[in-house]
Amino acid sequence: MTPIAKPPAPDAPPRGSADVFAGDGAPRGLRRASSYAAKVFAIARMETRKLRHDPTELLTRAIQPVLWLAVFGQVFAHTHAIPTGALGYVDFLAPGVLAQSVLFVAIFYGISVIWERDLGIVHKFLASPTPRTALVLGKATSAGVRALSQALIVYLLALALGVRVQVASSSVAGVTALVLLGAALFATFSLIVACLVKTRERFMGVGQVLTMPLFFASNAIYPIAMMPPWLQRLAHANPLTYEVDGLRALMLAGGSSAFGLPLDFAVLLATLAVLVSIAGRLYPHIVT
Amino acid sequence: MTVILDAQSLTRRFGDVVAVDRATLTVGEGEVFGLLGRNGAGKSTLIKMLTTLLPPSSGSARVAGFDLAREPARVRRAIGYVPQALSADSELTGFENLDVFARLYDIPRRVRDARIAEALRLMDLTEVADRLVNTYSGGMVRRLEVAQSMLHRPRILFLDEPTIGLDPLARETIWQHIEELHSTHGTAIFLTTHYMDEAAQLSHRVAIMRRGAIVVTGTPAALCEELGQRGQAEATLDDVFVHYTEDERESDDTYRETAGARRAASRLG
Hints:
Structural class of chain B: alpha/beta
Oligomer: heterodimer
Radius of gyration of chain A: 23 Å
Mean pLDDT of chain B: 89
Distance between the termini of chain A: 39 Å
């Protein structure tokens, strides 16, 4: 093997330095915003590519919504135990099951970050000039894409069960936005948990503890009015409630929102913004 | 020689443990610098500080002319980094792995594909670019990671144990590719290694770390000669290493580091 070249002589101009910042420099102004968006997109795209290479996950995840709608939903519809007003129980339940799928897809997202930390992938992302919040939003967006594939399954299932689903493009667009927003929110929450607990074992424990209360302290499978007052207060502080409320208005023909769609979207957006800024601060600590 | 990395008394404490103890070193533009030390000597912690992943407890450093603590974003644009653990994403193809990093480093669209093609060619991966990385051999994965880290033409490349877990033939190939990268782009290289032959082969200068402190720095030849003058004729870099580190307790090695190294080794093997 040839011996390695010696370093350049003291007076030689540094090689390669001229073009280093020419095309690859830090963008400014408007280009900075588009560069930020491009990075979020690049990370989300990478995650969805993985899904395309191996889509089995999407199928296994479809089982749970089937059980809730086709088994739980049918039984409770039959007993008329839950007062759901003008809506039939399965109609009432369908948006709740969609929200639940969104929650379940997103809430274990943090574990993939712990896994990537153990592999060294996160180190390389953090050593790149990518804003921390862009790394977080990229992950959050890809959780949204996964959740959308669940939405498709829930829609098909709901149609098969005779739920009166709205298929107007405006309501589908609204549902898409809510699904992306909800998945991003819970995925970011999951990333925060991952950054705090740092190991897979602890994450699994904490994840289990958080998921069920989030689900049961919401309007997903029964109306808030049925709950004891203490639980009602929890449900009102739970972002999943606003996700379900918005979905109920947009997904169903004859569905309506208890809080109003503007409030649903505002609560979800504001919560997401706060969580992303927290996660952006915590993310670098996952490697220390 | 222009200085590309200048670290002054860089220190990192974890509670009462001093992982890196007042490390002072410089690396010149285009220089290959080898950092040697036993497991747990503080090499990876030092690299994490120099790549902005870990803030120093005290001390300072300038990398590519930028202050590590005050201008981390600029430092990140100027450096490339290959972590010790295998960091290419095995569920993506080689090309996809490169493409995402080209985007994260703001490489303009008009040159992106050309840069990726060049990196693939230099690392001999053009043929396998569209295969999933989980079908690659350990040496190919490492080459892909070096390719990822050079897309934005960094001025200094940090390689943490680049040949850990590789068989001798694959190591030799990695060396050749690192040398080719160095001679093509003149990139300065900062590498850590356990292998003395690797350090002697690749590095212009080496430093030896012991319990977090840098105990000696010099060219491999000078260090061997110095030991020779102390009565050990025909000293090799191995002898130099043993001379400076033999009293170090092996228990300084942490479980997590060992687990990480084994995991990397098993994925490569």
